[in-house]
Amino acid sequence: MAAPLVSVVVRSSARASLAAALQCIGAQTYPSLEAVVVAASGASHPPVPATVGPHAVRFVASDTPLSRPAAANAGLDAARGDWITFLDDDDLIDPTHVDGLAAVAQKSRHKVVCALARVRLADGSRQNWGQPFALTELYLRNFLHLSTVLFSRAMPAAGCRFDVEFEIMQDWDFFLQMAQHTVFQSTGLRTFEWHADAGTSGTGGDVNSDSERFARFRDRIYAKWRPARDALAARVEPLLAGAANDIAAANWQRAEARCEEALKIARNEPDALDMLAMLMHRSGRGEEGVAIQSLAATIRPYEPSYVFHLARMLLDRGERDRALRLAREALRLAPDYAPAAQFLAALAP
Predict the structure, then answer these.
(1) pLDDT tens digits, 194-205
(2) H/E element holding 25?
(3) What proportions of the chain, in percent to the nearest 5, are helix, strand and coil?
(4) Confidence of residue 2 (pLDDT cuts 50, 70, 90)
(5) Which helix (H) or strand (E) holds 326?
(6) Cα–Cα distance, 94 to 48 (Å, whole number)
(7) Which of 28, 160, 4 is nearest to 82 (CA)?
(8) Distance CA 189, CA 161 (A)
(9) Per-residue pLDDT reduced to its tens digit, 276-316
(10) Measuring CA to CA, which residue among 21, 148, 156 is closest to residue 85?
């Protein structure tokens, strides 16, 4: 059976970096792929090659410059692939990037699959970025990059488009649109390199950071998606409250059932993971408990209690040094977090 066609859309502003983006696409090991270059810079955009490596290139011309969401929509309209992803012309992907995402999509039958990112800054420093998917967290902040996400043509067919009212954060809004239709499958792959301080979005790092603009559009995202977020909370929060009451009453089995039900509604809901990990740990399923608590701390890395709960579990399993490191991390996240301070004082006076 022939591999489904994947369209890689490039919103091009005709900078020299377009050549590097096309080179990345040309090096992709996935056999059935097209590059769709959208002339975001307008009529001044120079011609593009007909192919890159073994893959065809199609050019989407424009008489006028296009905003980021307008260019993205032009790419959606022009893409012929069964699956679609994006690559900004100042970022890079590994040769196996599309192949890896497509393999997970085919195996899992999910309509959206996502990877993680490597961040490379202009000063040469590098760091990892991204996390597994969690819808409740996506309503709070964006932890996905458009180039890490491969989605089925069924998503734009269902009406998912880039909102032209968002000068920035249109990708975050697009993810939330898709999340109303399907659950995202996280892959754990880290095959995308994001040059976060390049560009002018104001949502990256260093010179590409504008806190006032960021806050303004973030609040607009919150306002647009508040009804959907509240509807999800109305289904999940009673289950979490019930589970907490069950734990207080030592009704462990019912508490676990409520946590599992909450996770079926909202995959990787972090509070449900946190409680479920504790329940597993106390019932002797320590390895499962540590894995779930680690996931909770990954989903919400800014929450000191999740990190600290993991530290306590690890200490019970005899991993003292790792427990100490995590307790210090919890205290770094919240210097006034008393449980971690007391834990450290007891173990490492």
Answers:
(1) 998 775 444 444
(2) helix 17-26
(3) 50, 15, 35
(4) confident
(5) helix 320-333
(6) 21
(7) 4
(8) 26
(9) 999 999 999 999 999 999 999 999 999 999 999 999 999 99
(10) 148
- Cβ neighbours of 5 (radius 10 Å): 18
Residues listed for the chain: 349
What SS3 state is found at 342? helix
d(CA 167, CA 9) in angstroms, rounded, equals 19
Q: Which helix (H) or strand (E) holds 7?
A: strand 6-12
Q: What amino acid is encoded at 335 in this protein?
A: P
Residue-wise pLDDT tens digits, 101-148:
999 999 998 999 999 999 998 888 899 999 999 999 999 999 999 999
* pLDDT tens sequence across 84-95: 999 988 899 999
Six token digits for residue 301 = 């890395």
Closest by Cα among 162, 175, 163, 168 to 210: 168
Residue 169 to residue 201: CA distance in whole angstroms: 9
Phi (first) and psi of residue 47, to 5 degrees: -60, 160
Residue 285 in contact with residue 273, Cβ under 8 Å? no
Q: SS3 of 140, please? A: coil
pLDDT of 145 reads 97
| DSSP string across 199-224 | SSSSBSSTTSB-HHHHHHHHHHHHHH
